């Protein structure tokens, strides 16, 4: 079972870093204020407030910053400022040996799915959740509170309305997943993870419908769907289409491949690139209950 890092306590020091796209101190100021109200001391890493084109500094700046925060014993959690692209460029050059001895929470989503899965492959849980740049988006209050509760080790569970595509049943297993395109990107790399016996959750943003289908074909052909215990389908925001329509919604595409198997499936889960992006602990064992009147997800 993956290692769960210690819960945060008031007075703990946390870091904000950019492993992917850039974020200025001005853009992060509101998040720093919020974290401070949670009783935390915030350290802004060297990869914040710098830029190399779209990135938060060069690959070496971002790698070194992440490395420092992983190694520093006084840093109790690392929050990645934003996603975009760039995390996979530095992962293979990061040394996680000190982190393995003294694990800490790492949180982010989207491009950070690669880091979440890399940590899981090494045997450590992390958080798929809202990032500092998005802390104060309208309608995101529940998402932010779910992140706070998860970081501080408070009880968290989710109840979601029924969806017409849902397949009923109960599943147990460690949570794994995140951004669909990133899951395809890391396939066959050191960041790749097994989905067998686990509950997979998926989300994505601004992907073409044919591309969503192509990525689901890839997941299915590589066996990532075959031995799931359950599937959670989050937001597939702003899907794109070609001049000649693909002919299916993201949910219909996913249902096509899920229908080959008999695990329970929950659609419409509040995770992904929307204000409602509830924190999920990648690697933590959970129970998914899909019933006619709604869905429950709770940790075990």
Automatic annotation (TrEMBL):
One matching Pfam family: Peptidase_S66C
Domain LD-carboxypeptidase C-terminal: start-end pairs: 172-288
Domain LD-carboxypeptidase N-terminal: from-to ranges: 14-129
Catalytic center residues: 110 (nucleophile), 203 (charge relay system), 273 (charge relay system)
CDD domains named among the record's database cross-references: Peptidase_S66 (cd07025)
The keyword Protease belongs to this UniProt entry's keyword annotation: yes
Statement: the UniProt record of this protein carries the keyword Magnesium: no
One of the GO biological process terms: proteolysis
SUPFAM superfamilies in alphabetical order: Class I glutamine amidotransferase-like, LD-carboxypeptidase A C-terminal domain-like
Family from the record: Belongs to the peptidase S66 family.
Record protein name field: LD-carboxypeptidase
